[in-house]
Design brief:
binds flavin mononucleotide; alpha/beta; 37% helix; 12 helices; single chain; 8-stranded parallel β-barrel; two-stranded parallel ribbon
């Protein structure tokens, strides 16, 4: 089997097979079927919200490259007259720097340094993109999901329901038939914003926001993921946040860390270390494992990291930085960045998903059922 994997890795370095997940199932007896927000997807690898999902061409290219899902850039909610309580987050900033970042334990990883925040064009432009996302998602094998930042009040303030209602109704109308998936982004309220400093306030948001969004959609059924931030508190508070968000359908865990000295968010090995530690602790203490479903994000840079997140309970993973590396960092010599990334994540003979799952089988951690190794079995079982 490893020889075959090495041959496939070399063979697909110039371009992936059209349906890589189907090929892997056929060639290795590995079923990579995963889930995002309850929807079955052919494999667990998707793109997190950010600067790589701003237009229809990017979505179409990612679908063609074989990505399982893409989260659109986060839009800032607005009311019927166009007022946005979180308007300060709609910052226009184009310059991104892909940089090396050394973790506290010395490991060298990658991070993207960028000072912008949310969608900086009009809401109508965003709705046009959501129309494309709805059409592509209904066509099957690929999901494209809007991401929103809604009003988050101070403790003594009410929620601005008009903003929730107007934004959600218009998103539902643009999306079209079928349940509307939404990722609600809490992340920009991370450090740097005094609002993010109060625990009680954060926990209130997490308890109340899912109900607000669901009732704001009117009759449109909504499937809601909350993307949780890494707050500037300890691991125990991350667990409290997860518990407070229990009425969401899924939790995306956890957005980037905050570098107080440089005043920027960052990723790399510190991020995956923290996220995995908290996810394992959540799993160990869970009274009702499996609800909400979990999606991992943070420093996913190999198939092995995907497996680490899966073994911490994540049914899929949302990557951003790995799709932005200098071309020379990918072993493939052809195809888009997305294709090159998928090639390494799936087929790398040492660090890829196939290699890692075969290794878990040899170690007796993962067992064939009906002749197949199943990715989702990893999320369901205790490590
Ligand atoms: C330049 C940049 C912009 C981002 N913008 C958003 C955003 O608008 N909304 C959001 O929820 N996450 C955003 N993120 C977070 C990513 O989606 C992802 O969760 C995070 O970077 C961790 O994954 P990574 O280590 O693979 O980059 C952004 C990340 C980067 C690097």
């Amino acid at each position: 089997m490893p020889d075959r994997l090495t041959r496939d890795f070399e063979r697909f370095g110039g371009g992936l097979p059209r349906e890589a997940a189907a090929h892997i199932r056929e060639a290795y007896g590995i079923d990579l079927t995963a889930r995002y927000l309850g929807t079955s997807i052919p494999h667990p690898i998707g793109k997190g919200s950010g600067q790589l999902s701003l237009n229809a061409d990017q979505l179409e290219a990612d679908r063609a490259a074989g990505l399982a899902f893409v989260i659109l850039k986060t839009v800032i909610a607005e009311d019927p007259v166009g007022e946005r309580s979180m308007g300060a987050w709609a910052v226009h900033e184009t310059k991104m720097r892909v940089e090396r970042r050394q973790a506290a334990d010395g490991r060298e990883g990658w991070t993207v340094t960028w000072k912008g925040r949310g969608w900086d064009r009009s809401f109508d432009d965003y709705l046009a993109l959501v129309r494309v996302a709805g059409d592509l998602s209904r066509a099957g094998q690929f999901l494209a999901v809007p991401s929103v930042k809604y009003h988050l009040p101070r403790l003594d303030e009410p929620f601005r329901d008009e903003e929730y209602r107007h934004t959600t109704e218009r998103l539902a109308a643009a999306w079209g038939a079928g349940p509307l998936p939404i990722e609600k982004d809490f992340s920009p309220t991370l450090a740097g914003d005094a609002l993010a400093d109060e625990r009680i306030r954060i926990l209130r948001w997490l308890r109340e926001v899912p109900g607000r969004i669901r009732s704001a959609g009117g009759p449109a059924p909504i499937r809601l993921a909350l993307k949780l931030m890494n707050a500037r508190f300890d691991d125990a508070f991350q667990l409290e946040m997860m518990a407070a968000a229990a009425t969401a359908d899924a939790l995306v865990c956890f957005n980037r860390l905050w570098d107080d000295a440089a005043r920027v968010a960052y990723g790399g090995w510190d991020l995956s270390e923290r996220n995995l530690r908290v996810l394992h602790a959540a799993r160990a203490g869970a009274t009702n494992p499996g609800t909400p479903a979990l999606v991992g994000t943070g420093n996913v840079c190999s198939g092995r990291l995907i497996l680490d997140y899966a073994r911490a309970g994540c049914e899929s993973v949302a990557l951003h930085t790995y799709f932005q590396l200098p071309l020379g960092e990918y072993p493939a010599t052809g195809g888009s960045r997305t294709e090159r990334a998928l090639h390494a994540l799936l087929y790398h003979p040492a660090d890829g998903l196939v290699a890692g799952m075969l290794e878990l089988e040899r170690a007796g951690v993962l067992h064939r059922r009906g002749g197949e190794l199943r990715f989702l079995d990893l999320c369901a079982t205790e490590p």
